[in-house]
Design a protein that fits this description.
Elements lengths: L1 E5 L9 H15 L3 E7 L5 E4 L4 E4 L4 H15 L5 H20 L6 E4 L2 H10 L6 E4 L4 H10 L11 H15 L3 E4 L2 H11 L6 E3 L6 H8 L12 E6 L8 H12 L5 E6 L5 H10 L6 E5 L4 H7 L2 E4 L8 H9 L3 E4 L14 E4 L4 H13 L1 H18 L2 H16 L14 H16 L19 H16 L2 H20 L1
Parallel strand pairs: 1-2, 1-5, 5-6, 6-7, 7-8, 9-10, 9-12, 10-11, 12-13, 13-14
Antiparallel strand pairs: 2-3, 3-4
Helix pairs in contact: 1-15, 2-3, 3-4, 4-6, 8-11, 9-13, 12-14
């Protein structure tokens, strides 16, 4: 199959969606399929297909689209929130870029978010199946951020909430199959955004465990200090990742003991604010901001504990990587995390946003090393059972087949072809062409045959069918025009 993976976020970037796309691309190629990726460019100034070296500058699309969109909004939706207008313009640009590159050559389109799914459903060929993987609830994430500006959860009657909820619903329903990595996210989409339950299939992530384990052994510029324990939090600096609660919990831990350090690996808009809070709590020597890192596997290998204080999360790859590495996880109970980490079985779980409980988990990890060793062993066993890349690839391919079954005109076989199978199919296709073709000779035609050629007969049939489909009003107008023409000819 020729598969297009599409995402409305820039790729590559630091985050779980990028990791999933990389793993999915790897698994599909190993299974014998051709894969292209379509997304905004890393600088956000255009769109591209990296494998084909095809790109288009957004500046060639946005001015006209923005002009038309603003004109429409001013006349029909005056006073609408500028963020809604901006979001619509971004989607139209994405659609225009997809049409520019062309989608007809693909047997399958796999969108990675609600916006790209909605956009591509509008411009893809009608016979091409569309599958969507939703990696989180964007509406909830948006409103967690907006709460910092004073918008509360009770504002669900606002236009911006209704618009966000509609986008969530459309993005999860326009595809032929929608994939959710967790049961939690499926429940959210069904209960909060009216997505039909049978339309969503839960299929967990997968990971190339062998390659990750090799990457853990590579050298890193960051070296673990001797004689102290290391907490590692690999997450972007965003409100939904809950760093603020971790810093406050670490401040309480420092008041009790100082034989630890916490590495924060990532970047984001909150970096400066978090650094200032760290200084205010006197944690400059204990909380280290490492920035974006290419050596996260090596950092995980050196760390003693992986901490993830998320306020909302789906199925974070940080937990997957920690379990593959056999590291104990200290994580909140946000989103789909409790489906991955069971308290006191393969990690420690605390209520999201609860600083006191997080502090107790951090202190327990430092005090009871024997217990944490057992949790690490259980975590590794869990990781070996649940995160294999080939299993994820097979699940996704089965869902591709389900999507293709809704288009009978498509060949629904998706198994990678071997050389022998391809040869046999080619021979079968050639066999009928090798048979002698007997065509009627001109002298065999009789006088009784219709003088109408197949082309003319086809045209007449097409015109007759077209007339049947025309509305009565059009027929009446045509009848009036014909009478006018006859009257004009008689007068002349």
């Amino acid at each position: 199959m020729r598969i297009l993976i599409a995402c409305s976020w820039s790729l590559p970037h630091a985050g779980g969606v990028n990791t999933y796309v990389n793993q999915l691309e790897k698994g599909l190629k190993l299974a014998g399929h051709h894969v292209d990726i379509f997304s905004p460019t890393p600088d956000g100034q255009g769109f591209y297909l990296p494998g084909k070296e095809m790109a288009i500058d957004k500046a060639k699309l946005q001015p006209l689209i923005a002009h038309q969109s603003n004109h429409y909004m001013d006349h029909h939706l005056s006073g609408i929130d500028p963020w809604i207008t901006f979001s619509e313009i971004e989607r139209y640009c994405f659609e225009a870029a997809a049409m520019y590159f062309g989608l007809a050559e693909y047997d399958m389109i796999h969108a990675q978010d609600i916006m790209s799914a909605h956009a591509l459903s509008r411009v893809k060929p009608s016979h091409t199946p569309l599958v969507t993987t939703i990696h989180g609830c964007l509406t909830r994430e948006w409103f967690i951020r907006l709460k910092t500006l004073g918008l509360t959860d009770q504002d669900t009657s606002s236009l911006i909430w209704k618009y966000s909820a509609l986008r969530e619903h459309l993005g999860a329903t326009v595809s032929d199959v929608t994939i959710s990595p967790s049961e939690w996210l499926k429940r959210v989409m069904v209960e909060d955004f009216a997505v039909p339950e049978p339309h969503i299939t839960v299929s967990h992530y997968g990971f190339d465990k062998e390659q990750f384990q090799q990457s853990m052994l590579r050298d890193s510029m960051i070296v673990k200090p001797e004689g102290i324990s290391v907490f590692l939090c690999p997450a972007r600096f965003d409100v939904v990742k809950g760093h603020i609660y971790l810093i406050h919990a670490l401040a309480k831990l420092k008041a009790e003991r100082s034989d630890w350090v916490c590495w924060l690996a990532g970047e984001g808009s909150l970096r400066e604010e978090l650094m200032n809070i760290t200084k205010d709590h006197g944690l400059g020597d204990h909380v280290i901001f490492l920035g974006n890192r290419e050596d996260v596997p090596a950092l995980i290998h050196q760390a003693d504990f992986i901490v993830l204080p998320s306020m909302q999360d789906n199925q974070p790859f940080a937990v997957i990587e920690a379990q593959i590495a056999g590291k104990p996880v200290i994580a909140s109970d946000a989103g789909g995390i409790p489906e991955m980490v069971t308290h006191s079985v393969n990690g420690l779980v605390f209520p999201a946003g609860d600083i006191n409980e997080l502090h107790l988990c951090l202190r327990s990890a430092l005090q009871d090393t024997k217990r944490l060793s057992s949790l690490a062993s259980q975590a590794k066993e869990w990781g070996e059972q649940h995160w294999a890349l080939p299993e994820m690839t097979n699940r996704v391919l089965a869902l591709y087949e389900l999507a293709r079954s809704k288009y009978p005109e498509q060949n629904t076989g998706i198994e990678p072809q071997t050389e022998q199978t391809t040869t046999q199919q080619a021979e079968q296709q050639l066999e009928p062409k090798l048979e002698p073709q007997i065509e009627p000779q001109p002298e065999q035609q009789t006088e009784q045959q219709s003088p109408i050629t197949p082309l003319k007969r086809g045209r007449r049939k097409w015109r007759a069918n077209r007339r049947k489909k025309q509305p009565a009003a059009i027929k009446r107008r045509r009848k009036i025009r014909n009478k006018q023409r006859k009257f004009t000819r008689k007068r002349s």
